[in-house]
What we know:
Elements: H1 34-39, E1 48-50, H2 57-62, E2 67-71, H3 74-85, H4 87-100, H5 106-119, H6 123-132, H7 158-171, E3 175-179, H8 182-188, E4 194-197, H9 216-229, E5 232-241, E6 246-247, E7 259-267, H10 269-274, E8 284-291
Parallel strand pairs: 1-2, 1-4, 2-3, 4-5
Antiparallel strand pairs: 5-6, 5-8, 7-8
The chain binds S-adenosylmethionine.
Residues 26, 28-30, 51-52, 54-57, 71-73, 181-182, 198-200, 209, 211-214 line the site of S-adenosylmethionine.
Amino acid sequence: xxxxxxxxxxxxxxxPGKPPAQxxxxxxxxxxxxxxxxxxxxxxxxxxxEPFLGGGAVLGLLKPKRAVASxxxxxxxxxxxxxxxxxxxxxxxxxxxxQTLQGPDKVAQYRILRDRYNxxxxxGDLLMLSRACYGGVIRFTKDGAMNTPCGPHKxxxxxxxxxxxxxxxxxxxxxxFIHADFAETxxxxxxxDLVYCDPPYADSExxxxxxxxxxxxxxxxxxxxxxxxxxxxxxxIDGWKRSGSHACAIPMxxxxxxxxxxxxxxxxxxxxxxxxxxxxxxxxxxxxxLRTWKD
Length: 295
Ligand SMILES: C[S@@+](CC[C@H](N)C(=O)[O-])C[C@H]1O[C@@H](n2cnc3c(N)ncnc32)[C@H](O)[C@@H]1O
């Protein structure tokens, strides 16, 4: 049924190239599996929607002509909106904060930045924290405070950031960024539109992101409404971890998804962060991509 709802003038899906270098480091980034995910999208669709935007790896690779991208974390959306509306300001945010982390007191300066963010969450500070924090893992406590320590690495210099930001601005030129709960974005999608969902990992990310109000059950109900309207929905979800030895049990509603394919993501950044110094050879992570349509 969904196949009949494609608009004749819908844009063709371009073959994905190489994923762009990350604008933000974001836990759960789909950079490594973005090309496989894009290849699993329908060849034609109208507006693209990404309601769990994070670092936007799939959006950046897809370069959609028309898109709506959203996330529940307001300072994160402030970064994306500033990319679209005021590129020089975004680069200035980065350069000013980068400068403060160049001296021998880098760790102390990082803590000042983090404390300031926690008192008044804002896009500029979150941008620098994402690039400077340990393992690129932005992690929040139950009270919503960002508590990741300073990483030992050197954040990329402002010139390199400015280059990336200009590239990302072009890639997202057709995208409107919105601060919203996922359900709002999914409910606005129309027949023939495509939605890609990459929610917090059900079994390991409960305390990450500081933007919760998320349950799989509510997501499935929202996807069900989309499917009934003729919207294509693709959903990345925990597949298995520890090279397949630990399967993640997800209760799946009968008949909601028409296809289910494994996507190897690589090693888990979260595990890398938690297991500092330990060997991670077994920590291969794979996602599943569930789709409400068949090829
Ligand atoms: C796995 S990450 C997305 C990663 C992204 N695909 C990437 O490549 O970087 C999940 C995102 O969902 C957001 N999130 C959590 N709860 C949400 C909700 N109720 N509505 C919308 N976004 C939410 C988090 O802030 C986080 O950025």
